[in-house]
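[job 0417] fold request received: Dirigent protein
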Amino acid sequence: MEKSYYYFNIIFIIILTTFLLIANSKTLKPEKPCKQLVLYYHDILFNVTNSANATSANVSNPLNNVLGDFNFGMLVVFDDPITRDQNLMSTPVARAQGFYLYNMKSKYNAWFAYTLVFNSSEYCGTLNIMGADIIEQKTRDLSIVGGTGDFFMARGVVTFSTDAVEGLGYFPISFYLLLIIINFSIVESSNKIRAHRPCKTLIFYFHDILYNGENAKNATSAIVGAPAWGNLTKLAGQNNFGDLIVFDDPITLDNNIHSNPVGRAQGFYFMITKKYLLHGSINFAGADPLMNKTRDISVIGGTGDFFMTRGIATIMTDSFEGEVYFRLRVDIKLYDYTHRARAPCKEMVFFFHDIVYNGENYKNATSAIIGAPEWGNRTIMSSPNNFGDMIVFDDPITLDNNLHSPPIGRAQGMYFYDQKDTFSSWLGFSFVFNNTDYKGSLNFAGHDPLMNKTRDISVIGGTGDFFMTRGIATLSTDAFEGSVYFRLRVHVKLYECWKLL
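[job 0417] inference complete; emitting structure tokens
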């Protein structure tokens, strides 16, 4: 019998906003936004002297003076207070937890993936946000790709504006939140879906064995980034704050690590305070407050038999042994689930070109290794199969496969290699457009099994001309030259196309 797998991709995300909409040529009833908020988040970067007040830390080598003077490759993990006004000392109403990375050589530009975590008398739950932050623009839109609790499966857009900057040490960002929670009984699906009654429920266990310098044979994960006070074989102090771990963990149907795996959990996590005839992937995003008995994160998309699925995954720590091993029980509830793809409402084909910095090609490089396992370095891919390498990129997008054609946008984000026994990666990135044909952004996330001729990842949101869009992107490797250059053909098929009324 042919093997089939679930791929679990964990990342951390946030964003908010919505308006009056049309989807797939069907009009939703005009609705006013159910909530409008202006919030501020305050980021204080660790600088060696401010450990008591710091709320974020650089966990990678920014490669300054090598790839420009704009922090290209700097990846910052944060746990920032959210307030209702500009005062850092005001009572927080939430925490922003996740990461941002700088991804351009020629100017300051960032890519965000994080979660707003609310736990107050007014709100309880999370909102997940993701997207490119074009810092030089006065206002910037990012995508809200999911939520939990009071924000159950919320989607929309959040608008950023930088309210103040004090060097690299401190900045507050204000964001205007217009949030609408779509009632799934009136969206595009012909099948009526009652909110909070799942159409499919699954329970799995995944097992994580962290590399500690001595267990290379059995390890399924490795620390690839750490704050200044940490290292790559032992979790950092202060509750492991800032550690970045890449994993390729076995998934089982029971809590026995020696049971036959039904799939692989592949992705990454930050430390911040089968015999089923199913094929495809499920993508997750959210904050995981480890001290809680159960925790909800968002299911933000899927491929194959989980085509464009959405829902909630409830996580429970089933077992752990020190810092090296833990087992999670994952209870997945899908509320927006169909096996059949409709005809897409929009199709596009693009090419993006990635040139990895190798220590000698500063002028042409569009990406760089910013995190590597303990045995790796920043200019040569790790062995075996590049496992643990994390790459930040700012790649040109063209309409044909010629690297020298005029770019119509930029592909900005990151990917990392997540398997020891074959070439495989996980992608989180945005297409940022600003031309006569398209304006706005498309956000992507998913597992990329590189040895397959074609691979599907999820389109999980967008802004501008691609407001709140969802769909599938089919990747194929169009060319590669060793480990320095590759070109991807990206066939984008959108199945949710929204327009502002």
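[job 0417] notes: Residues 196-336 form a domain with the AOC barrel-like fold (CATH 2.40.480.10). The chain has a mean pLDDT of 78.
[job 0417] exit 0
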